[in-house]
Amino acid sequence: MTSLKSLLMASAAALFATAAAAQNTHVRVAMQLEPPNLDPTAGAAQAIDSVVYSNIFEGLTRFMSDGSIVPGLAHSWEISDDGLTYTFFLREGVTFHDGTTMDAEDVKFSLDRARAPDSTNAQKGLFASIADVTVVDPLTVRITLSAPNGSLLFNLAWGDAVIVAPESIGNAATNPIGTGAFTFLNWVQGDRLEIARNPNYWGTPAVLEGATFRFISDPTAAFAAMMAEDVDVFVGYPAPENVPQFQADPRFQVLVGNTEGETILAMNNGAEPFNNPLVRQAVALAVDRQAIIDGAMFGMGTPIGTHFAPHHPDYVDLLHLSPHDPERARALLAEAGYPDGFTTTMTLPPPSYARRGGEIIAAQLRAVGIEAQIENQEWAQWLESTFQGRNYGLTIVSHTEPMDIGIYANPDYYFAYNNPEMQEVMTTLTSTTDPAARSELLARAQTIIAEDYVNAYLFQLSVPTIARAGITGLWLNQPTAAIDLTAVTWP
Amino acid sequence: MIRYTLGRLLSLCLSLIVASLVIFAVVEVVPGDPAAFMLGVNARPDTIAALRAELGLDQSLPQRYLSWVGGMLTGDFGISYTYRTPVSQMVLDRIGVSLPLALMALTLTILIAFPAGIYAASRRGRAGDLGVMGATQLGVAIPNFWFAMILVLIFAINLRWFSAGGFPGWEAGPAAALKSLILPAIALALPQAAILTRVMRSSLLDMLGEDFIRTARAKGLSRRQALWRHAVRNAMIPVLTIIGLQFAFLLAGAIVIEQVFFLPGLGRLIFQSISARDLIVVESVVMLLVAMVILVNFAVDLAYAAVDPRLRARA
Asked: If we measure between CA atoms, which residue out of A285, A262, A271, A304 comes closest to residue A405?
């Protein structure tokens, strides 16, 4: 009797142990938005990169969590003295998930496809400086530029620049075939997507045997799913108000990392009254960043004084140019010819930083006499009427593309900032490869746009990741949208 | 009967054409270019133009309307702009969640509403009736998504009897799939059951005042016997009409509940497609739902006519 009992208990324990072990080689990762398709070279949706970047697809270079660029499918490269020719040496023995070999022809195909006239690459601008891509031998590719481009290695690390194969790219929207440490398994649209470890990976194989991505957009459902342990990791957890509850719970760990998202109160520089620098300065001084971070983001976010990521080594702290000073803001408005303030529109896209932040900013602006009428817009509507149509006075948006200060050199951009000096700095920067000179130019650019008060720079967006305690290897920061699982372990 | 059927058929076709025009116009009028949405803020104008051409968005509105309608007539509902998969396949996948969910919710609704309505009618004005009516007031007033959250809090987070949401798929076995639909079905059924209970009760009370009930009572049936044998059956006509409406609502109207339980159903598909400006999916799915309602009405019309000769004569 006793032996039977102990046998039962032993088998129960064994069962339990296998169940636990099985669970730890597989993680269930939740994110808020579902990718519309799985081709990172044909769409701007960040959710695509979140799933496929580094897991399924790889580029010649790649981002690390701290934002640095390291070799990817190219193990090294040589840059000619004039900065016009880049020779990339590819890794040997790299195969796509369908078994075909990844070689220089695939690199040429991928880059030529991205920059072709009929390309639908959302970041086609990344490839603008490429004049020609030549196959030297199966493991060597030469890229010739029309002008020196100091950010080429950075550009090639983007998800939009991954290496794809001509045989399989046609079906990448539903069946992505890359070179990464995970292979695509299955996608139940609207619900979940599964990937499995690639046994033939060229580099260090992934520790996990597989992972499931789930798409949970509702903040309450996100809370419930984490609490009920239906998911193990939630990247970009959508309900910041619940974060303290997870921090207090020993079952979970909370990672609050930086993103490349400069969150700004954008002003329409091309129209009255924001074409007046005094008015823009008044708006910048009327805004109390900390109140917005505390009120809209529950304390998560780093204040910024210019359009640049504060975790970047070249960041210049320019917060002193726009301290919270309603008195001076009122004086500046009077000086600009608006002693009684004015009325304008503020369009707000769906994210909570905009919708919640907008309410707070409207109150802060009202305190200096500016009446901002809030108009909530869906993304598609915001893109059409605010972004493309420039039919707005103020708007709030987080610019999540990495190193995007160059948008201030584009007079056709939605905030319509036209300053030849800034444009010249950016042109010089593009053709500068010397790191010290680049840092100086970037500092100059940050100062110009801060002193011109082009927009009111609010804060660097933080993305909280909630994970079960014990999971390691997740990215803390988000230098690009990615949920890189290649180094994740769950002992 | 043939003339009547042809008349109804003509009106069916006209309804479908008008519906398709309205759906197309409304969806196309709403601002937001699908191509610009897909390519985001860094896209160049020539890239957006290339994608518009690829998606066929550069054609004129009448051209696009005709190719959409023409495609549907041959069973081709188009290819989703964002997912790049055939809309018909997506709808089929989603119906695999929405239809069982709607059926479960409807079954629960009926299981609650019939006994409750009959009980309340038979106890008219007494404490039992007042209790049921009070409960239905509450049931109508409570928003179903709030009720859903309470269910999740109790049964998923605290008791761990159910998962907080998601759908394991039918390949995981019918038991697992059905289990994941229980909480959403309860959340959906509660307000519907409250409505149906009230309809059941008032319809029964109407019947109890009819002559044939008095005759039945005069024949010596007790009040309860008359209710069960004669009133309930006759009271079913308005109740069935409401059930039909509720089913259509449950099939397509579970958008919020599908968000709360992150279920991959039709409602979530419509919601995602609208926010991504996946116009072709929105148009085709809404058209399908409208066509379904119109066809059901057509069938009901024919059924009425088969039963009621007066309708045939009028046509």
From this structure: A262
The whole-angstrom distance between A82's CA and the closest CA on chain B is: 29
Q: Are A426 and A272 in contact (CB under 8 A)?
A: no
Mean pLDDT score, B246-270: 84
ipTM: 0.77
Contacts of A252 in chain B (CB under 8 A): none
User: Could you give the C-alpha distances from A28 to A91, A354, B31, B173, B268, in angstroms and in order?
Assistant: 31, 29, 37, 20, 21
Q: What are the CA-CA distances from residue A223 to residues A230, A245, B158, B245, B274 (Å)?
A: 10, 10, 13, 34, 25
Spatial separation of the C-alpha atoms in residues B61 and B55, rounded to whole Å: 13
By Cβ distance, the residue of A44, A189, A191 closest to B40 is A44
Question: Pairing mode, if any, of strands A61-63 and A26-31?
Answer: unpaired
pLDDT of A403 strictly over 90: no
**Is A401 in Cβ contact with B41 (below 8 Å)?**
yes
pLDDT tens for B259-295 read 889 888 888 888 888 888 888 888 888 888 888 888 8
Q: A228–B152: do the CB atoms touch at under 8 Å?
A: yes
Whether residue B88 lies within 8 A of chain A, CB to CB, comes out as: no
* Bridge partners, A210 (sequence order): A26, A196
Q: Is residue A334 a contact partner of residue A342, using CB atoms and an 8 Å limit? A: no
Residues 203-242 of B with CB under 8 A from A: none
- Partners of residue A228 in chain B, C-beta under 8 Å: 152, 156-157, 160, 163-164
User: How many residues can be counted in chain A?
Assistant: 491
Inter-chain touch B36–A385, beta carbons under 8 Å: no
Structure tokens at B176: 């697992």
For residue A154, give the nearest of A75, A61, A259 by alpha carbon: A61
Q: Which of B54, B94, B149 has the CB atom closest to A190's CB atom? A: B94
> What residues in B contact A151, CB-CB < 8 Å?
none
Confirm or reject contact between B268 and chain A (CB < 8 A).
yes
Instruction: Say which residues have a Cβ less than 8 Å from residue B88's Cβ, sequence separation at least 6.
Output: B75, B76, B77
Provide the CB-side half-sphere exposure for A207 (13 A, CA): 16
Query: Above 50 in pLDDT, residue B315?
Result: no
Contacts of B156 in chain A (CB under 8 A): 224, 228, 230
pLDDT value, residue B81: 83
* Unique residue bearing structure tokens 């299981």: B111
**Are the beta carbons of A27 and A474 closer than 8 angstroms?**
no
What integer pLDDT is reported at residue A311 of this predicted model?
Answer: 84
**Probe site for chain A from B27, B33, B47 (most A CB atoms < 10 A):** B47
- Is residue A69 within 8 Å of A48, Cβ to Cβ? no
B259 touches chain A (CB under 8 A): yes
Among candidates A180, A204, A156, A197, which has minimal Cα distance to A60? A156
Q: Which residues of B touch A43 (CB under 8 A)?
A: 38-40, 82
For residue A225, the distance in angstroms to the closest alpha carbon of chain B comes to: 5
What is the mean pLDDT of the segment spanning B83-107?
89
